[in-house]
Amino acid sequence: MGKRDFLSANDLTRTECQALLDTAIRMKSGDYSDRPLAGQTLALIFAKSSTRTRVSFEVGARQLGASALFLSTNDIQLGRGEPIRDTARVLSRYVDGIMIRTFAQQDVEELAQYADIPIINGLTDLLHPCQLLADLLTVQEAFGTLDGRVVAWIGDGNNMANSWIEAAGLFGFELRLACPEGYQPNRAIYEANARRTRLLITKDPGEAVAGAHVVNTDVWASMGQESEAEARRQAFAGYCIDDALLAGAASDAIVLHCLPAHRGEEITEAVLEGPRSRVWDEAENRLHAQKALMAMLMGNR
Ligand code: CP
Ligand code: NVA
After folding, report:
1. Which ligand does the CA of 217 lie closest to?
2. Is 120 in contact with 297 (CB distance < 8 Å)?
3. In 3D, which of 266, 256, 152, 254 has the Cα closest to residue 204?
4. pLDDT at 1
5. Which residue from 27, 67, 74, 25 is spatially nearest to 49, judged by alpha carbons?
6. Do residues 88 and 115 touch, judged by C-beta distance below 8 A?
7. Residue 141 above 90 pLDDT?
8. Relative to the CA of 224, which ligand 2 atom is closest?
9. Atom of ligand 1 lying closest to residue 56 CA
10. Probe residue for ligand 1, chosen from 54, 58, 99, 123 as the CB with the greatest number of ligand atoms within 8 Å
11. Which ligand 2 atom is the nearest neighbour of the CA of 160?
12. pLDDT per position as a tens digit, 95-113
């Protein structure tokens, strides 16, 4: 039987992604006691820090009957230069699936190419598709559907922004991104999806947020960009989600942030802790979305 990977949102069809979200909702409701991963092991390779991704995959794997193996690249030979393709073939002989968080998307693709078990992208510099699933689940819970929603992205055109562009293309909703010059999303991803749905890139956060149902942001300096933090603070001045910006959104708009957040930079304390914020549900939804993903890729193999 062939294996399936989840390296980007485009590894799912719209129908599959919707089915995954529906499964996640069922899992969250408690109406799910299957153990489709019984007896399996999921390896979790981390070259960057994590709270939500690590814990949601570890706990989720256990709830589905699997064990999880945390592998920091500080400890495994990959971190000392053992090739990805060798790591892929060796781990394929021990475990039943691998989630990897690293820098280059190409490394995740190489892992998938050489492994004969499912590979899950737990964040690269380019994409964060697992977080996207949790975000889509949060929007579906808030509005019942993704259809007809208008989504605004404020700030860095980073891995989360790129994943949201892929989601807009997949589901066909309108996405408006407000990013400063020089910090726009990946051009190839933008162009591919601009042919599939309504995408707007602007420098004006107010234009992006006008009437939007979902207002979403992320840190200005992602993991690996720590040395750019000060330059980025200057470039992103004015790209903070605050109450004044939110006043232009739809009256029932929700605010998302994948976390960790930098209060006072990309989002104010008042918005993060305020009535429109869905960030804690969004964080919880990592667990349900990741479980539905593991069940889809690894279930009953
Ligand atoms: N949102 C997210 O991926 O969080 P972690 O970095 O804590 O995994
Ligand atoms: N864009 C952030 C997301 C963290 C979950 C980063 O890559 O650090």
Report:
1. 2
2. yes
3. 152
4. 59
5. 74
6. yes
7. yes
8. 8
9. 8
10. 123
11. 1
12. 999 999 999 999 999 999 9
CA of 261 to the centre of ligand 2 (A): 10
Q: Tell me which amino acid residue 245 is.
A: L
Question: How many residues are there in the chain?
Answer: 301
Identity at 215, one-letter amino acid code? V
- What's the CA gap between 116 and 58, in Å, rounded? 21
Give the global pTM.
0.98
Measured in angstroms, how far is the CA atom of residue 108 from the centroid of ligand 2?
A: 16
Structure tokens at 274: 């305020």
- 46: helix, coil or strand? strand
Catalytically annotated residues: 101, 128, 131, 218, 258, 286
Confidence at residue 300, expressed as pLDDT on a 0 to 100 scale: 80
Residue type, 143: F
Task: Give the mean model confidence (pLDDT) for residues 182-192.
Answer: 98
pLDDT of residue 160: 99
The domains of the chain, with CATH numbers, are: 9-128+286-298 (3.40.50.1370), 131-282 (3.40.50.1370)
User: What spacing in Å lies between the alpha carbon of 50 and ligand 1's midpoint?
Assistant: 5
